[in-house]
Amino acid sequence: MNVFIIYLEKIKQIVLNDKSFNKIVKNKNLSNIILEKPPENFDYDLSCNIALILGKQNNLSPRDLAEKIKKLIIQNDNFSQIDIAGPGFLNIKISKKAWIKNIQNILKNKNKYGSNVSRRKYNIEFVSANPTGPLHVGHCRGAVFGDVISNLLIFNGNKVTKEFYVNDYGNQINIFTESVFHRLKEIKLKVPFPSNKGLYPGSYIIDIANKIIKINPDIKLDNLKKIEKKLSKEAIKHSMNLIKLDLKHLGIKHDNFFYETEIVKKNLIKKCLMILKKDKLVIEGYLQPPKGENQKNWKSIKKLIFKSTSFGDDNDRSLQKDDGSWTYFANDLAYHSHKVKRNYDNLINILGADHTGYIKRITAAVKAISKNKIKLTCKVCQLVKLYKNGQPFKMSKRLGDFISVNDLLKEVDKDSIRFMMLNRGNESELEFDFSKVLEKNKDNPVFYVQYCYARINSLFKTLKINLYKDISFNIEDFKPNDFENKLIRKIIEWPKVIDIASTKLEPHRITFYLYDLSTIFHSYWSQGNKNEELKFIIDGKMNSKMSFKIFQLISIILQNGMSILGVSLPKKM
RNA sequence: GCGCCCUUAGCUCAGUUGGAUAGAGCAUCGGUUUUCUAAACCGAGGGUCGUAGGUUCGAAUCCUUCAGGGCGCGCCA
Description:
single chain, alpha/beta, Gyrase A, domain 2, Isoleucyl-tRNA Synthetase, Domain 1, five-stranded parallel beta sheet, RNA-binding
């Protein structure tokens, strides 16, 4: 129930159905007509640009046209006042009767308020960290981002599969296994861990080695080759447990873990390539040598090539290395063809900033595999810079250069991390000073929003009535003051925020909105200090039904919003 | 060399398909508490929306140029 959409449709209908209006206005492309919130300094509920758009299309004066439209739509009982401003904007007030209807609707919708019903099937792949160690802060942003987008899509009624692609194959895994092997030798045979072989130095490798010894006390360490497969599997299992534990602490649970080795085992690449070869999108050939500097080592070798330039990529991409083995991209191509076969309406990948260059080729791949039927949307999360008391935070006990999620969780709670990770657009770098988040004041947006809810609960508790009590409310009770006006106008924006956040996959709009809503509430709350009449409770009784009705609406939004964000909302603080 | 992202107040950032006088928070300065929770609120100052052009009734938003910062890139995953 997005009133901006509902009323815009009403306005369009009224205008289109009027005969005399149709005589003057011939050209009617209505697509750019919008109904929105007027700027702060205008005391109206809605603003419409219809006269500007139609005036331009028909070469008519927008202000004259606005006069005509005003006369038509003022007859509708949803609107009580319409005025023309500036170049021809229609500024509109919603009638009392319509307001009451809207308010009752929100109370009725309750935990569905804001939801824009959609019934699609989504697959969202996020985190997909290499299974070679615990998560670091960079993963954390994408993890929260992906999880909240999932919640958002689910809130709108979609089916969502949260997926983690486990890259348990390839060079990185070999190095990882070798690292564990040398840690085992260090522990059991006192052979010093080699520091110059490019192995993983992190101390978590020692933990993994210890766990392996516990389970296999008699493990033979004379030859890595002999035990490599088994050891690798075992080590990855422990490593994935670390990752899953980190995710759990962040409140994240994936529905599906898809292992790269499955692709290799089931020979998915060959099956997938057969189709693409038929369409001549995979061919045998030679790649152009790269432009720029490093041309010296270029060897021209015949190999399988994916024609990703046909779909807007900068280069065609090789599916084979010089030795004939598959590239990472080849496996990923097969993986995405597997996703396509699973019949999703939309695929979403959440990537770190370091994978930006990969987007074109993988979206090209999905287009090719699905014959342009399924869209893959890639969203990138930029870097996170950690600060403590304004100073860059560096603490690298476990991961060498990276700060682990585990380290971060020792400093800050899950709620703060989740909220703060979304307190920026995903394409901006994020500075996260977690000393701020430990404070209980306005510096800390998480607290500020939570406190709003706690205050509302405290009001209802003081009156000894339930937060959801059905407060009788008639047209005489609808007399909003300035603060209440601001609040109800903000409240009807909520479905629009959800709409934009989910169509653009930008969940930060929710955190910003909730903060703004809380600001108006806190401001209203404090008015009672100066002005007795603005106190919410006088002599133990509700001062106005209007305000308490609004508090119920606010708490509904806070609950819906925070549950999408996955942040707790205590009744008492 | 190429691709993507960013550039808005002293700092950190918002700003749906182009809309009205560009908004928050922090910081700075000044004020508010015998209270329904001051864990809060109110007020003030602060801007050439990186640069230069273009498109039009109208541009932070779209197109082009240049500059600065970040990330990535060739058969690593």
